[in-house]
Design brief:
Layout: E1 3-7, E2 20-23, E3 27-29, H1 34-37, H2 40-43, E4 48-50, H3 56-59, H4 62-72, E5 76-80, H5 82-91, E6 111-115, E7 122-124, E8 127-134, E9 140-146, E10 152-155, E11 175-178, E12 188-189, H6 197-203
Length: 222
């Protein structure tokens, strides 16, 4: 499993970009910096997008990605919880801010939305995907993504106090935790067989902020 970090911030400057991860070139998590990071040929390889939640730094590039795919004859499906999909449709895909690619072209729309049920594993582009609720300012999901060969990653998304609760839902084994919070620990593998909640809690205790408001001193928060 190859994981690329395209961006990990809630604002953009020349040297930093908003939140996006790419797994094996075909499965993206969040869309803060997909089009600003990838050439067209690599954008067209992406088949599915998992959204953790509806905040701007996680959804910004969806309209631009849809336009790229529309012009290139491609298509993508966006997965998330219903509240995030509703916000995306209302504010971004409304034919006022940008073209609603759920309706273009009419015979084969470029963009489709699919709601996920929390704590229920589904198969997406050959990966087993488990959406796990985490605490944030709006309803938010972390994602455990497991490849066909058993490799697995758990991306928490933006979160704050109470993170330890989600570990009771995650299937341990060869799993690497990736945090969405600024200041979160660097990704590191759990020991094989570390399936005890106490071990996960020791490595990744609850804590941290969940605000998108600017912080004193110019620090990024989520």
């Amino acid at each position: 499993m190859k994981i690329r970090f395209l961006g990990a911030h809630n604002c953009e400057r020349q040297s930093q970009k908003m939140v996006s991860l790419l797994i094996d070139d075909v499965l993206a998590i969040d869309a803060g910096s997909i089009t600003s990071s990838l050439p067209l040929a690599e954008q067209k390889k992406i088949k599915a997008l998992l959204l953790t939640h509806q905040h701007y730094d996680h959804v910004r590039d969806i309209p631009g990605l849809a336009m790229s795919l529309f012009l290139g004859g491609g298509a993508i499906r966006v997965y998330s919880i219903q509240s995030a999909l509703d916000a995306l449709a209302k504010h971004f895909l409304n034919s006022e801010v940008y073209t609603d690619f759920r309706r273009k072209p009419e015979d084969k729309p470029t963009l489709s939305l699919a709601a996920l049920e929390p704590n229920k594993a589904v198969t997406i582009e050959g990966y087993t995907v488990l959406a796990v609720p985490v605490k944030h300012g709006v309803p938010t999901m972390g994602y455990q993504v497991t490849s066909a060969d058993g490799r697995s990653v758990f991306y928490t998304g933006d979160t704050g106090p109470g993170l330890a609760e989600c570990w009771q839902r995650v299937n341990f084994g060869q799993v690497c935790r990736v945090g969405g919070r600024v200041g979160a620990p660097r990704p590191q593998p759990l020991k094989a067989g570390a399936n005890q909640f106490s071990e996960a809690e020791r490595l990744y205790p609850a804590g941290g902020g969940d605000s998108h408001e600017p912080q004193p001193g110019g620090g990024d928060s989520g």
